[in-house]
Every structure is written in structure tokens, then in C-alpha cells.
Write a structure and sequence with these properties.
binds succinic acid, alpha/beta, 13 helices, globular, disordered N terminus, D-Maltodextrin-Binding Protein, domain 2, 328 residues, single chain
Length: 328
């Protein structure tokens, strides 16, 4: 009898203990770039802040370099609960919301200051909600930087791009941008870009300095033209189901940690763009070409008709709002 009582007590204690010790919330954060980039650093900082502050209530696992999902799969996986956070580039949201294509329009923003002003404006913040109907919550923007053109032959004027194959992200605006200069755009995953360049399956591409350096694209592209012709930034997203399922206090703490990590990532973005540009020049592996104002104007003239092509899709009002951000 005493044995039976002891056994019942043990069972009660075991189950009782389980009832009070809730399993930690697990956040899998998946991305496609290297840990040394603004996004890679932001994700690690987010993990550190969450785990320092929330102890065993939340764990964050970061999967860089497309280890878990590429950008073509991550958003679907998020709705299935296989990943909780990601920060795809803004170009990857085309099939979810046409408005975000605004960030792909060539020569729309003068610099990263303008990009930031637009993202932080009321209109920019409203765009974070544009994915709600599809089941996603936009938690914030993260910078990478302005894009440069790279190729295995020098690109100084639009005619140099004629007939060349360019890898692009999955964006019709970016396809139209390269078509506007007679190029042949190919939508390919980020994880394949180095091999495509190395095997000469593509002639060129566009990327910000930190992606070029961290993925060694400069070792397999002979020229990089400093065009700053567009922006590559990110939206940190989660699923509405996951986000709304968090306890209010916990959600607020996770958001606070994320905002701080994004602020850190944005500071790093500005610093790394300059540092990685210099490292590429110092490596001597790729020649960094400066173009004259007149040459730049030719690229602007050739690519700017793309705005009109997409103005009804994106909304002319939105384009006008974005242009206002160029004024300081
Ligand atoms: C990224 O920076 O997340 C990848 C962008 C790309 O696919 O070029």
C-alpha cells in the first residue's frame, strides 16, 4: 500500500512539474546571407538579446546561408510553422503585395538616407502591414545597401549590358530594369549566384557591397561598376498565427529586442558597405569602375521608363511619396 502511495505521489509530482514548466517558445530565424553581413549580424544580436532577457522562455536558433530555407520557400514554410522569422529582401515579396515593388524601381532613391526616411514615414510604416491579408506580420525594415552592377566585362554605359545575362532576384521590376538596357535577366536563388558566375552561366549581377564581398562574387566577376542604381533592403517578417499566439508581455519583449537588433543591423549596414567596398578594391580581384555623371545619366535615362511600366501596379501616389524622401 505504501509503495502504491509513493508511486502515485511520484506520478503526480512528475505531471505537476510538467504543468508548471511550460516549454520555451522556439524561434527559428532563417536567412540566406553570411553571418558577417548586416542581416547575419542583426539575427545574431536578436538571439543574444532575447536569450539574455527572456532566459528559458524563448530560444532563438539562427540558420544563415540558406541552411534551412532559401527565399523561394521560406515564406510558405512560415505559414506551416516550420520557421518563425525571416528577413527576405523586399524584392522577394512581389507575389504577396505589388506595392513593395516600389523598392526595386531603379534610381528612385538618391541614397540610403532617402530609403530610411521613406521606410520610417507613415506611408513606409503602413507598407509593413501590406502582408497581413496573406497571414504575415511585417515587424520592421532592415538595411543592406545600395546595389552595384558586376560583370565579367566592363559596364560603363547601358550599351555595354546589351545581350548580357544577369542574375536577378524574383522580381518583375528587376527583370524590366535589365531588359531596359538590352540585358537578359535570369531569376535565380541567391545560393546559386557564385556558381553561376564561376561557370559563366551568367555574365553579371547586381548586389550591395556586403553581399558581393561575403559571398566572394568579386573573385568571379572581373568588374564592378559603382552605380548605386537601386536598393537591397529587407523586411523582417513572422506569421500572424505565431505572433498573435504569443503572450502579450512576451510579444512586447521580443519586439523590443528585435527593434534594438534592427537598429544595430542598420548601423552595421552603413559601416560594412564602406569597409567591404574597400576590401574588394584592396583584394585586386575585381576592378571597381567609377562612372562619370554623364555616363550615369545614360543609365538613368535607359532604366527610368520602368517606373511608368509599373506605376499602376505599385501606385503613382506611392511613388510620389517615396520621391519626397529624397528631399532632406
Ligand atoms: C539577401 O541579401 O538576402 C539576398 C539577396 C539576393 O537574393 O540577391
Amino acid at each position: 500500500m505504501r509503495l502504491l502511495t509513493a508511486a502515485i505521489a511520484t506520478v503526480a509530482l512528475t505531471f505537476g512539474a510538467q504543468a508548471v514548466t511550460a516549454a520555451p517558445v522556439e524561434i527559428k530565424f532563417s536567412h540566406v546571407v553570411a553571418e558577417s553581413t548586416p542581416k547575419g549580424k542583426m539575427a545574431i544580436r536578436f538571439k543574444e538579446l532575447v536569450e539574455q532577457r527572456l532566459g528559458d522562455k524563448v530560444t532563438v536558433s539562427v540558420f544563415p546561408n540558406s541552411q534551412l530555407f532559401g527565399d523561394d520557400k521560406v515564406l510558405e514554410a512560415m505559414l506551416l510553422g516550420d520557421v518563425q522569422m525571416a528577413a527576405p529582401s523586399l524584392s522577394k515579396f512581389q507575389k504577396y503585395t505589388p506595392a513593395l515593388q516600389i523598392f526595386d524601381l531603379p534610381f528612385l532613391f538618391n541614397d540610403m538616407g532617402a530609403v530610411d526616411r521613406f521606410q520610417q514615414s507613415e506611408t513606409g510604416q503602413e507598407l509593413l502591414n501590406s502582408l497581413r491579408k496573406k497571414g504575415y506580420v511585417g515587424l520592421g525594415y532592415l538595411h543592406n545597401g545600395m546595389k552595384q552592377l558586376s560583370a565579367n566585362s566592363p559596364l560603363r554605359v547601358p550599351a555595354d549590358a546589351e545581350g548580357k545575362k544577369f542574375r536577378i532576384q524574383t522580381s518583375d521590376v528587376l527583370a524590366a530594369q535589365f531588359e531596359a538596357v538590352g540585358g537578359v535577366p535570369l531569376k535565380k536563388p541567391f545560393s546559386e549566384v557564385f556558381t553561376l558566375m564561376q561557370t559563366k552561366a551568367i555574365d553579371g549581377s547586381e548586389n550591395p557591397w556586403t553581399n558581393i564581398y561575403s559571398k566572394k562574387f568579386h573573385e568571379v566577376q572581373s568588374y564592378i561598376t559603382e552605380t548605386d542604381h537601386g536598393v537591397l533592403d529587407y523586411m523582417v517578417v513572422t506569421s500572424a498565427e505565431f505572433w498573435n499566439g504569443l503572450d502579450d508581455d512576451l510579444r512586447a519583449e521580443v519586439k523590443k529586442a528585435l527593434d534594438e537588433a534592427i537598429a544595430y543591423g542598420n548601423e552595421e549596414a552603413a559601416k560594412l558597405a564602406a569597409e567591404d567596398r574597400q576590401k574588394i578594391i584592396d583584394s585586386g580581384r575585381s576592378e571597381v569602375l567609377q562612372i562619370t555623371e554623364a555616363e550615369r545619366e545614360l543609365w538613368v535615362e535607359a532604366m527610368k521608363p520602368v517606373w511608368k511600366q509599373f506605376s499602376s501596379d505599385i501606385g503613382q501616389d506611392l511613388i510620389n511619396e517615396a520621391l519626397k524622401a529624397n528631399a532632406k
